[in-house]
Amino acid sequence: MKLLALIHRRGPRPAWLVFCGITAALAAVLVLAGCAAKTAPQLYHCPMHPDYVSDKPGDCPICGMRLVPTKADAPKPVPGVEKDRQHTDSTPHKDIYTCPMHPEVQDDKPGNCPKCGMNLVKKTVAAEPEKTSPRAGDAAAATPPGLAAVHTDEGRAERAGVRTVAATTESVVSSVRAVGTVVPDETRVRHVTTKVGGWVQKLYVNAVGQRVSAGQPLFELYSPELLASQEEYVRARQSAEEFAKSSLPEVRRGGEDLASSARRRLELFDVPEEFLQQLDRTGKAQRTIVFRAPFTGYVTDKSVVEGHKVEPGMDLLTLTDLSRVWVTAQLYEAEANSAQLGRPATVTLPYDAGTSLRGRVSLVYPTIEIESRTIKVRLEFSNPHLALKPGMFVNVALEASRVSGVVVPDSAIIDSGTRQVVFVEVGPGHFEPREVQVGPRADGKAILRTGVRAGERVAIAANFLLDSESRLRGALTSKVYAPANEPHKHEQ
Question: Are 289 and 220 in contact (CB under 8 A)?
Fold first, then answer.
């Protein structure tokens, strides 16, 4: 239009000259439009990962979705750079506008979202604070692989439920809890047997669990061998009395030795001393002999009844003294440091939580249980009122040594199985992931050997939301975008 106005101002011209001028102008416009089209090639992006762009169609290397053309009026993402990083500058705070439905859409001025048309809302981004150099041996220098710092405003973090506390320097006493089993004291168990064959004529103790006192009759045994030994002893005593009248010392001494040998034979057959004294008084052999309890205890096993024929060495009764018992507890291999002789321990009863017994580790077994991969320790307790019964399960708490260090709540630690991570607030709304080494734990607290210094604030609530956002940001910042002059790897 300007060209036509210029022609009219200069006066009338021939028609062919006017036509040539208009044609030249139109050609110039077409040439300029073609150059502009060449300078703005069509880009393609992933609907699920808008930050991934390519100059050719294909599939997204992250999720496999088909790339879609990028609209000319939409803000074009910069490959490999996060949107919130594009608009940061050296000022402490900068206002940017983002879409509530599409947080990846950000601009430095108000407007509408090119995707959904919603009004952009303003948010304030705090500049990253200058990082202080960590102390020697501190693992807080590097961000864990696969994670990235999380940036948000302070109000949004509060609405998401993020709460922080300051790490402190304390000392904790960690305790190892285990399940214990009450077992009899093996040194107070006695098997009642006989050294001769015979028949049980009468059984005084005929039930398992019956309490017996020391010296109480257990059973009467008829044994032909014991009866013959009694008669031999009676005759030996009579011979010794006759030999005592001799004037020869050798004869008198021979009679005494013969009587002593016959008595010694009965003693080796475990004939009670009371029975031998009665035999000395009466001089008559008894058909049966009464065997008595060697100590006070309880019958924990019985394998004989009246009239039962017994053989030498057969277990007839098992007596157990329960006035003192053992408690064995099993610890995992990771808790082997707590398995030490003399370590204080507390035992609580499952049926009476108010009763607790104090003891110490008296033995650490030298082997590991193959099936459960545990280490067994033993504690000893007096049991005058039979509060601890063999076979009972009890709760055992072994006190570990007191350890000092940087302490944070257990809820601040995100344990993936291969590493432990905490999120440290390094500025308002700015959370930095750090890999830590966790030491002993006790009472809901954990000691951190590396990664966090005393006074730093760590997230203790909603930190799993921070972990999800950190993983997403880490995945976006670690992507490799295809250059514009190279073919997409899916199109080769």
Answer: yes
- Residue 71 per-residue DSSP state: P
Residue 430 CA: distances (Å) to CA of 70, 101, 460, 464 = 32, 22, 15, 15
Q: Tell me if 82 sits within 8 A of 476, measured CB to CB.
A: yes
- Tell me the HSE value of 462 on the side-chain side, using a 13 A CA sphere: 12
Q: What is the pLDDT of residue 477?
A: 67
CATH of domain 190-318: 2.40.50.100
Angle at 162 (CA atoms; ends 156, 165), nearest 5 degrees: 130
Q: Tell me what the mean pLDDT of segment 3-29 comes to.
A: 52
Which CATH superfamily is 175-185+322-401 part of? Efflux pump adaptor protein, beta barrel domain (2.40.30.170)
Beta strands in 141-245 (DSSP E): 150-151, 163-166, 168-184, 189-192, 198-203, 211-212, 217-222
Helices 224-243 and 273-282: crossing angle in degrees, nearest 10, is 50
Would you place residue 102 in the very low, low, confident or very high pLDDT band (cuts 50, 70, 90)? Answer: confident
| 150-172+403-477 CATH fold | 2.40.420
- Residue 3 Cα distances to 12, 20, 22, 23, 34, angstroms: 14, 12, 8, 11, 21
Q: What is the CA radius of gyration of the chain?
A: 48
Distance (Å, whole) CA 396 – CA 398: 6
Going by C-alpha positions, the residue among 243, 277, 271 that lies closest to residue 257 is 243
pLDDT confidence bin for 106, thresholds 50/70/90: confident
- Assign 156 to helix, strand or coil: helix
What are the two backbone dihedrals, phi and then psi, of residue 420, each rounded to the nearest 5 degrees? -115, 135
Cα 92 to its chain centre, rounded Å, is 44
